Amino acid sequence: MKLFFDDRQTAHAPLRELHNGDWVPFAENVERPRSIVAAFDDWQPVRDFGMEPLLAVHDADYLAFLERAHREWIAAGRSGDAIGYTFPVVRRRPLAFGRIDADLGAYSYDAGTPIASGTWQSAYWSAQGALTALDHLATSGDANAFALCRPPGHHAGRDYMGGYCYLNNAAIVARAATARGLGPIAILDIDYHHGNGTQDIFYADGDVFFASIHADPRTDYPFYWGHADERGEGAGEGATLNLPLPRGTDGAAYRPALDAALAAISDWGAKLLIVSFGADTHSSDPISSFALERADYGDLAKAIAALGVPTLIVMEGGYAVGDLGRNVAAFLEGF
To answer: Is residue 104 in a domain?
Structure first.
């Protein structure tokens, strides 16, 4: 399996986030990708596919905001990382503010996703890494590829950031794959947290099937999305499958949900599978509450590989840095 990563993805280095009423060190830190990089010997270079694939998913004004936000934050006399503090919960609409704090609220839904000086650079190359992995799958004949996407992406929507995510890497490669005629496309999200941004992007889209196995949003972030009754709408009705699980779920309890998701993906007739993989389902993860162990990741991967369709794995969460590289290795080795 070819592995793709660009060191520019480590430029994103916020110092802190607001969590449960207090400032805490930023959990999605540069030690995460470094621990994964150190677990493997051979990384492939990332190519630049430009802005067009990003614009196929994300609003142009939102992308422009991400690129300029930190500069405007500093120009406004602020210091440190740019973080919003007021958010439009009703009648959200495009408005020209001329104030960076207003823009931050308009384009985000939480106060835990700061924009630092290197955020745009890292998010851009994270997406390019996923696109490079897709191009490799499409042209090489290989069955699998892995993109170490950092920052992660599955909480980012068409025109908003959140949950440490700025560009939705899985959605970007799904759109690009559809444009290349590689469909039908399915996305399987197996991060601890629901991929609300990915769901939102494809909720009314019948071209991409989205299945997510995640912590029950009645108890865990992102709370407002990922409930079992969310199945899509319009042309996308029935193309969304949410399988929420309770805190404490271990490998044995997780497996029936995975089998159900894989059966639905098979019934969909997917010709390409994109896996949003989060290792924050591990028992040691400091911000999550599942109880999967390292051996479980190999078993999950073998079950996914048994679908027999080309699979692009994009990295999402996982915050137990000491275990992260070995957990990712166990998952990839399962393929």
So the answer is: no
Please state, in angstroms and rounded to a whole number, the distance separating the CA atoms of residues 6 and 52: 20
Tally of domains within the chain? 1
Please pick, among 58, 155, 214, 282, the residue that the annotation labels catalytic: 155
Nearest CA-CA partner of 155 in 111, 188, 127, 193: 193
Q: 311, 144 in Cβ contact below 8 A?
A: yes
How far is 87 from 15, CA to CA, in rounded Å? 22
What CATH number did the domain enclosing 141 receive? 3.40.800.20
**Are residues 188 and 209 in contact, defined by beta-carbon separation less than 8 angstroms?**
no
Rounded CA separation 251/140 (Å): 33
Rounded distance, CA 70 to CA 76, Å? Answer: 10
User: Measuring CA to CA, which residue among 195, 201, 186, 328 is closest to residue 262?
Assistant: 186
Q: In whole numbers, what is the pLDDT of the chain averaged over residues?
A: 97
Report pLDDT digits (tens) over 216-242.
999 999 999 999 999 999 999 999 999
Q: From residue 163, how far is each of 122, 208, 274, 287 by CA, in Å?
A: 16, 23, 20, 12
Residues above pLDDT 70, as percent of the chain: 100
Q: Which residues pair with 211 in a beta bridge?
A: 188, 241
In total, the chain counts a number of residues equal to 335
Rounded Cα gap, residues 251 and 329, in angstroms: 17
Token reading at 39: 């677990």
Is 155 among the residues known to form the active site? Answer: yes
Q: What is the pTM of this model?
A: 0.97
Residue 294 is part of which domain span?
2-14+25-47+118-333
Pairing between β-strand 16-19 and β-strand 22-25 as defined by DSSP bridges = antiparallel
pLDDT for 92 equals: 82
